[in-house]
Specification:
The complex is a heterodimer of chains A (about 120) and B (about 110).
Chain A (H helix, E strand, L loop, with lengths): L2 E4 L4 E4 L4 E3 L1 E4 L5 E7 L5 E7 L5 E4 L2 E4 L9 E3 L8 E8 L10 E2 L3 E6 L1
Parallel strand pairs in A: 2-12
Antiparallel strand pairs in A: 1-4, 3-9, 5-6, 5-10, 7-8, 8-9, 10-11, 10-12
Chain B lengths: L3 E4 L2 E4 L5 E7 L5 E7 L5 E9 L2 E4 L6 E3 L9 E3 L8 E8 L7 E2 L3 E5 L1
Parallel strand pairs in B: 2-11
Antiparallel strand pairs in B: 1-3, 3-8, 4-5, 4-9, 5-6, 7-8, 9-10, 9-11
The chains are: A mainly beta (about 120), B mainly beta (about 110).
């Protein structure tokens, strides 16, 4: 079945450091891929998405490229800020994977950025 | 534009009590979802609905019930609360397959 695996956290970085959060997926079809962010005490917010191979999603300085050959969708940011401290979730939606296209989430990676 | 609204934000229940978590959206989305989030465990799908009058079980439906009488509302019912249902509950909606979800701000439920 479809699944998403993302790197274990927590990840602790200093301000202005480079961020990578790895995400790989297993899917039977051609899924859409998403990154969501959850700030403390809040619900999840869509950060970026990509709907087909080689697409790059970007938002607020974050980027992720849909790599079909490596089944990956790694999240990157060149210079993190304290305000980026949150939990990040990778997710996929595969309409042909038997789950009615419902989003399948990874377990989340907690990021803490220190000043 | 309110998006997805959940009430209440916090609730403490005693074992065996019942309650309804309310969820309403004003975006005319067809699909609605209920998830629970336990610490370090990500999100688990409880129930979902693809339109008014249609509901289906997710990964962890036991102990819960839902109904979808209108496009806007998707309440989640706990009939006999148990400590294992202590969690944060999120409602979400989306227009259709291939679109991302819009989440509510969550209901933090404690069963004692």
């Amino acid at each position: 079945g479809n699944s998403v695996t993302q790197m274990e956290g927590p990840v602790t970085l200093s301000e202005e450091a480079f961020l990578t959060i790895n995400c790989t997926y297993t899917a039977t079809g051609y899924p859409s891929l998403f990154w969501y962010v959850q700030y403390p005490g809040e619900g999840l917010q869509l950060l970026l998405k990509a709907t087909k191979a080689d697409d790059k999603g970007s938002n607020k300085g974050f980027e992720a490229t849909y790599r079909k050959e490596t089944t990956s969708f790694h999240l990157e940011k060149g210079s993190v800020q304290v305000s980026d401290s949150a939990v990040y979730f990778c997710a996929l939606s595969d309409p042909y994977g038997g789950s009615q296209g419902n989003l399948i989430f990874g377990k989340g990676t907690k990021l803490s950025v220190k000043p | 534009n309110a998006g997805v609204t959940q009430t209440p934000k916090f609730r403490i229940l005693k074992i065996g009590q019942s309650m309804t978590l309310q969820c309403t959206q004003d975006m005319n989305h067809n699909y609605m979802y209920w998830y629970r989030q336990d610490p370090g465990m990500g999100l688990k799908l409880i129930y979902y609905s693809v339109g008014a009058g249609i509901t289906d079980k997710g990964e962890v439906p036991n102990g819960y019930n839902v109904s979808r009488s209108t496009t806007e509302d998707f309440p989640l019912r706990l009939e006999l609360a148990a400590p294992s249902q202590t969690s944060v509950y999120f409602c979400a909606s989306r227009l259709g397959v291939g679109n991302g979800y819009t989440f509510g701000s969550g209901t933090r439920l404690t069963v004692v």
